[in-house]
Write a structure and sequence with these properties.
The protein is mainly β and about 240 residues long.
Length: about 240
């Protein structure tokens, strides 16, 4: 199903073919209250409206403008990729369990929005993950120079919890873009290496696993929050 302009509205017993690929390059898919079960869902522009759930095997967003998804996205092992310079806002409790890859633009959690804690966050290119006042658990965190994790919502405190994995994040973790909120970091297990010059001012809590720091400011701003290392956890200050 390809939607390039206008509106495709589902109502009554109307549905799209189950398991079929859906591509939205403009216009609107109005689900109403009809859940969507797709193979792949690809969105480069346009909108999805309605109070319904979406299940797919993959979610691909290539938007250069702003796209907001208010429906919950699910799918066992389903992946989500975000490219293009635009902003993608997810404003529901998402339950897809595959990796979330951000290679361009901004992936923002809307108010009350979240990724599944089983999803690994992989950042490449010049990309941003905006917590926007939410706290989020992720399976692991991988990123390169040019990537940014931040909280742009004014007067809020967000915590990013990394559950496990053996990964390196070479981007930066900062409080805000302009005027925003603060970011705290927690590690529950695995081995995470931070090699960027971080400036977040929230706390750093190591509940399990090993946090490797290979940059003098890897633990955030000198005026930032306390660093807590709980029993069984390790902080490794790499020389």
């Amino acid at each position: 199903t390809n939607i390039n302009a206008g509106t495709v509205a589902l109502s009554g017993s109307g549905v799209l073919p189950s398991g079929g690929n859906v591509t939205i390059a403009g216009g609107t898919l109005d689900l109403g209250t009809t859940n969507l079960s797709a193979g792949s869902l690809t969105v480069s522009a346009g909108a999805i409206t309605g109070n319904a759930a979406i299940t797919a095997s993959s979610y691909v967003f290539t938007n250069t403008g702003s796209v907001s998804i208010t429906q919950g996205l699910s799918g066992n092992s389903a992946t989500l990729s975000k490219s293009g310079v635009g902003t993608l806002t997810l404003s529901n409790t998402n339950q897809y369990t595959g990796a979330t890859t951000v290679s361009g633009g901004t992936l923002r959690l809307g108010t009350g929005g979240s990724l599944a804690s089983a999803s690994a966050l992989i950042m490449t290119g010049t990309s941003i993950f905006d917590l926007y006042g939410n706290s989020q658990s992720i399976a692991s965190l991988t990123g390169a120079t040019g990537n940014t994790v931040l909280n742009s919502k004014v007067s809020t405190a967000s915590t990013l919890t990394v559950v496990g994995g053996t990964t390196t994040y070479a981007g930066v973790i900062v409080d805000n873009a302009g005027t925003g909120g603060s970011v705290a970091l927690a590690l529950s297990g695995g081995a995470l290496t931070l090699s960027g010059a971080n400036t977040y001012t929230g706390t750093t809590t190591i509940n399990g696993g090993t946090l490797h720091i290979s940059n003098n400011t890897g633990l955030g701003s000198n005026s930032g929050g306390a660093v807590t290392i709980n029993a069984g956890a390790t902080l490794d200050l790499v020389s």
